[in-house]
Amino acid sequence: MNNEMTLNAREMKNQLVMNQVMAAALRPLQAIAHYYSRMLEQPVSVRQTLHLMNAQMAFVLTVFVDSPILFRVLCAAWLVVALLKCKSVLGK
Q: Cα(35)–Cα(64) distance, rounded to whole angstroms?
């Protein structure tokens, strides 16, 4: 019985720490989501923000990085897939 109480207390403490870590990790993403919401003039969730950031990274690697043609082709394919996903997630 005492061992169960110790285990439950430890699990509760671990859960509390994980919740705090998740909240800290989401704070910057929520700020970026708020920025996107202002720019797009519509509510943007954290999930949608991650899709937009994915498309931005694909664009940067496709256009601005001096690399072999095969890498650019792969990045261009990534960009097309990311843009299509953004279109479906944002509902336009």
A: 24
What do you get for the CA distance between the two ends of the chain, in Å?
Answer: 57
Which residue shows structure tokens 């859960």?
15
Which alpha helices (DSSP H) does 1-92 contain, by range?
Answer: 2-40, 46-63, 69-90
Q: What is the pTM of this model?
A: 0.77
22: left (phi over 0), alpha (psi -120 to 50) or beta: alpha
Half-sphere exposure of 60 (CA within 13 A, CB side): 6
Task: Give 29-88 pLDDT, tens digit per residue.
Answer: 999 999 999 999 999 999 999 999 999 999 999 999 999 999 999 999 999 999 999 999
Closest of 26, 14, 85 to residue 56, by C-alpha: 85
